[in-house]
Specification:
5-stranded antiparallel sheet, 5-stranded mixed sheet, 343 residues, single chain, Jelly Rolls, mainly beta
């Protein structure tokens, strides 16, 4: 049965318990911190990436066991120039087209420049997903789409890298659609443009949207925009929101980026309840590439005791601190919006 974005988010994202079950604000915040840590260790941040990639329209959650289709798309380019002037050069390439070989591997050593991955598939409209594992750690997913997407790798100079591309099921991510199709993957190194080009206009988000009803635990409810911040990378890297919980209403946080590297910037967040029970910086997840009415929760639903005031701080950063200077020479824009569930 096809699912929409909200339904897939419900299936893949860990939901907060209703605020009425949390009698003490500190307990609610502490539980939220534990969930945040568990999400990052268990790969829930990766599932959010899958939702952010837009793999929702017409996708079947049941595994499709048809024979894999050979890769029939054009070969990935050896060299190319991104829209912001960054020059890309291919380091290695591999295919995944044999049903008996459910994974593919690239092995290389990082140099003095950043490394990005690109994946191209034989059936761009199939909704297929491939998980990406670097040295045994799941770091992202690649969506079967046209044009192919790029993802940044969190690596350091001189590091030996073993990159494994495999189905979500094989990498231990149950629930993601396992659609068989042929793939081609390539690793690229890149150099930033000599002069950074202007950032695109900041993404625009709607004043309201219909999302899942987390208070009732079923159905949908209207969510209204209550706060919004926009900025330009690399000049603007943080956004702070001072908020108050109203009854059992929860908040959704949408983080959307635009520009050639927008989807590769990492976003993490920190919650301060002003009562000495602050959370540490949560593990970073890639920012959502901008799209019409595309909403993604970088931090999930937040709910707490009525009247509890708190501060949320969001921070954007490069995928790897070792190559932060190179990312600082490429412009992007971002918008972070807070939506409150309406009762």
């Amino acid at each position: 049965m096809p699912v929409n974005e909200d339904q897939l988010r419900q299936l893949l994202a860990e939901r907060s318990e209703p605020a009425r079950n949390r009698l003490v604000p500190q307990e609610r915040i502490a539980a939220r911190i534990r969930r945040a840590r568990m999400k990052r260790t268990a790969g829930a941040g990766l599932l959010a990436v899958a939702v952010a990639a837009g793999v929702v329209s017409g996708v079947h959650l049941a595994h499709q066991h048809a024979s894999m289709t050979s890769y029939s798309g054009p070969p990935l380019p050896v060299r190319f120039t991104a829209s912001d002037g960054a020059a890309y050069r291919q380091l290695a390439v591999t295919d995944l087209a044999d049903p008996a070989r459910p994974s593919a591997v690239l092995t290389l050593t990082a140099g003095s420049a950043p490394i990005d991955l690109m994946g191209s598939c034989g059936l761009p409209r199939s909704g297929a997903l491939i998980g990406v594992e670097v040295n045994g750690k799941i770091v992202s997913v690649i969506r079967c789409q046209d044009p192919p997407q790029l993802i940044g790798l969190p690596v350091r100079p001189g590091q030996k890298i073993r990159i494994t591309f495999a189905s979500a099921t094989r990498l231990g991510l149950p629930g993601l659609p396992d659609v068989r199709t042929g793939w081609q993957f390539a690793a690229y190194t890149w150099a930033p443009p000599a002069t950074a080009r202007p950032a695109p206009a900041a993404p625009r988000l709607p004043p309201s949207y219909t999302g899942s009803n987390t208070t009732a635990g079923r159905g949908n409810v209207l969510r209204k925009l209550v706060a919004i911040r926009s900025g330009t990378w690399p000049r603007d890297r943080t956004a702070t929101f001072d908020l108050t919980f109203h009854g059992h209403r929860s908040y959704d946080i949408s983080v959307v980026c635009a520009g050639s590297i927008g989807g590769r910037l990492q976003v993490n967040h920190r919650l301060d309840d002003h009562q000495g029970d602050d959370s540490p910086w949560a593990g970073a997840v890639p920012c959502t590439p901008a799209g019409p009415r595309q909403l993604e929760q970088a931090g999930g639903d937040l709910s707490g005791a009525n009247g509890l005031r708190f501060t949320l701080t969001y921070r954007l950063q490069a995928p790897s601190s070792y190559f932060a200077a190179a990312y600082a020479k490429r412009a992007a824009s971002w918008t972070i919006a807070v939506y409150e569930e309406q009762s």
